[in-house]
Specification:
There is one protein chain. The protein has helices spanning about 5-10, 15-30, 35-50, 60-70, 70-75, 95-110, 130-135, 150-165, 200-210, 235-240, 270-280, 290-295, and strands spanning about 120-125, 140-145, 170, 185-190, 210-220, 225, 230, 245-250. It is an alpha/beta fold. It has a single domain (about 40-265), classed as 3-Layer(aba) Sandwich (Rossmann fold). This is Cyclopropane-fatty-acyl-phospholipid synthase.
Length: about 300
């Protein structure tokens, strides 16, 4: 029997839910742990070979249905002012969500070497936090935002019109079969897209064709500290992250791309802030006891 409705309906105390989460975390750690360095290396390389045998992505429509075609108003109530649906950066720990969004966007600019006048592709642009920011700070650049969500395109186009941007184009398509013009971008920026990709090598070939000579790809991706694995059965896969992979930060580079820099950040703070905004949104419908229960988590 499926008991997800009990979790989703807010019927269980937060303390009970957290116990369940910790139990699942222990089970995951036990499932992916290795007994030796040799076993860890063999498992990792086997996973790399598995990636090479897969298509670029699967179940993209299901991922859209889960959250990329969700009404923008719902997410606007939870996310920051720039609608950054990905990790933010809190260098001091006291930043507001809006400040943390800009801190991370500025980090992308610096680490990806973005400059005014470049042709920049935001691959998997979400609600346009990156593309809109790049269009704002680089008025002489040509910014292309790519997403397979019609809802996201409508939102980004509306924001670009509101701000008077003439240097931003939004493309709706599926990265599996979409072909970008050859050698058309100085930089490709990918923020939390690769989690949905099943074959990095095929995707890298596609990106490589789209880059100009000397161009660079900047990737921001979720990563386990040691072990790559698939999200398979479970609540997360069913309701939030269908058919994604959890890479590891030291997985060997694939294809002929040279890794120049690796950065490691934590998503804890934005998740907690998003949750606090969601609590406020839900307060109109949930009983007071449920609100208090959620606040315990914070």
């Amino acid at each position: 029997m499926n008991y997800d409705w009990i979790l989703d309906g807010g019927y269980l105390p937060n303390a009970v839910i957290r116990l369940g989460i910790r139990r699942q975390l222990r089970e995951r750690i036990e499932l992916i742990k290795s007994t030796s360095l040799d076993e860890a290396y063999e498992r990792k390389m086997s996973y790399v070979e598995l990636l090479r045998s897969r298509p670029i992505a699967i179940e993209t429509a299901a991922a859209n249905e889960q959250h990329y075609e969700v009404g923008t108003g719902v997410l606007a109530a939870c996310l920051g002012p720039r609608m950054k649906y990905s990790c933010c950066l809190y260098p001091k720990g006291s930043e507001t969500l809006g400040q943390a969004e800009v801190e991370m966007l500025e980090t992308y600019v610096k680490k990806a070497g973005l400059k005014d006048g470049m042709s920049i592709l935001d691959l998997g642009c979400g609600w346009g936090s990156g593309a809109l920011y790049f269009a704002e700070v680089f008025p002489n650049s040509k910014i292309t935002a790519f997403s397979n969500s019609r809802t996201q395109k409508l939102y980004i186009d509306g924001k670009a019109k509101e701000k008077g941007f003439q240097n931003l184009t939004v493309i709706t398509g599926n990265v599996v079969d979409y072909e970008f013009e050859k050698e058309s971008f100085d930089r490709v920026v990918s923020i939390e897209l690769f989690e949905h990709m099943k074959n990095y090598e095929l995707l890298m070939v596609k990106v490589g064709r789209a880059l100009k000579p000397g161009g660079k790809l900047f990737v921001h991706i979720f990563a386990h500290k040691t072990t790559p694995y698939d999200f398979e059965e479970g609540w997360m896969s069913t309701h939030f992250f269908v058919s994604i992979i959890h890479s590891s930060h030291n997985t060997p580079p694939i294809s002929n791309f040279k890794v120049h820099l690796m950065l490691i950040y934590c998503i804890l703070f934005p998740c907690l802030t998003w949750l606090s905004f969601f609590i406020i949104l839900q307060s109109r419908t949930l009983p007071l006891t449920a609100i208090t229960d959620w606040l315990i988590l914070l």
